[in-house]
Amino acid sequence: MLVAAFMAVEVIVALSSGSLSLMSDAGHMAADVVTLGAALVATRIAGRSDTSGSRTYGSYRAEVFASGLAALVMLAVAVYVVVEAIRRAGTEPTIPAAPMLVVGGLGLIVNVVSLMLLRAGSRESLNVRGAYLEVIADAAGSVGVILAATLMITTGSPAWDVVVALAIGAFVAVRAVLLAREVLDVLGQHAPRGFDVDAAAHDLAALAGVRGVHDLHAWTLTSGMNVATAHLLLEHGADPSSTLVVAQAVLRDEHGIAHATLQLEDQMSAQCHDVSW
């Protein structure tokens, strides 16, 4: 709420002063508010039980869609900054530096207070750590606004407002692209980051009683929830129950798979031969 309230103040001052760097920083904060707010709503949605019977994985993907929305907002901010900077090329608009300096300073104070409130929880919760990193990025934007105002006062040139705005816009664009890549990786059901398919298959095949592994698939359901499926071909006389327990433990402890569905076979079925994916 603190960040959202200050964002509104920054937008008002940006519109009244005509400062592009302030507007770009406000847009960055708006994207972060969308990210944090959507993540909060998504978390509540994900915790609801499914009454339709059709969402067998529940609503955990709501967080992923929320992140996709945030990436689109961030890209829109970056595009706006670039277009506005091009429109202002060759002009010398009168932009009061004093309001920029005051708002940038207040923004930095708000971000520092938010960081102090989130610091302890960031060590314990992945979601809180994400919010902590977002506020750090906001603080960097506030420093950029302060720098632009200071340069404008010392040099007398309003061009620094556009230069810093483009720098903030580039920063937002890079973060948006990285976030969008993560979203597309999840929606495309890519293997979780850091998960080595070959290493996991090797570790499973090395278990006592296992003579082969096939149809190993791993993907991310939502942040912090990696799942996998695999077929294990057992040796004659192997104990299925103990093999299943040990195999799931290996995937969980060594490869970060929170939930693994494993099919145990004494011989490869015709279906395994026929399916090519």
From TrEMBL:
Keyword Transmembrane: yes
Major place of residence: membrane
Membrane topology: Multi-pass membrane protein
Keywords, alphabetical: Ion transport, Membrane, Transmembrane, Transmembrane helix, Transport
Residue intervals passing through the bilayer: 64-83, 95-118, 130-153, 159-180
Residues covered by the Cation efflux protein cytoplasmic domain: 193-266
Any one Gene Ontology cellular component term annotated for this protein: plasma membrane
Domain of life where this protein originates: Bacteria
Subcellular localization, as worded in the UniProt entry: Membrane
Location of the Cation efflux protein transmembrane domain: 4-187
Alphabetical list of Gene3D superfamilies matching this protein: Cation efflux protein transmembrane domain
Family: Belongs to the cation diffusion facilitator (CDF) transporter (TC 2.A.4) family. SLC30A subfamily.
PANTHER family, sorted: CATION EFFLUX PROTEIN/ ZINC TRANSPORTER, RE54080P-RELATED
Name of this chain's protein: Cation diffusion facilitator family transporter
Source lineage: Bacteria, Bacillati, Actinomycetota, Actinomycetes, Micrococcales
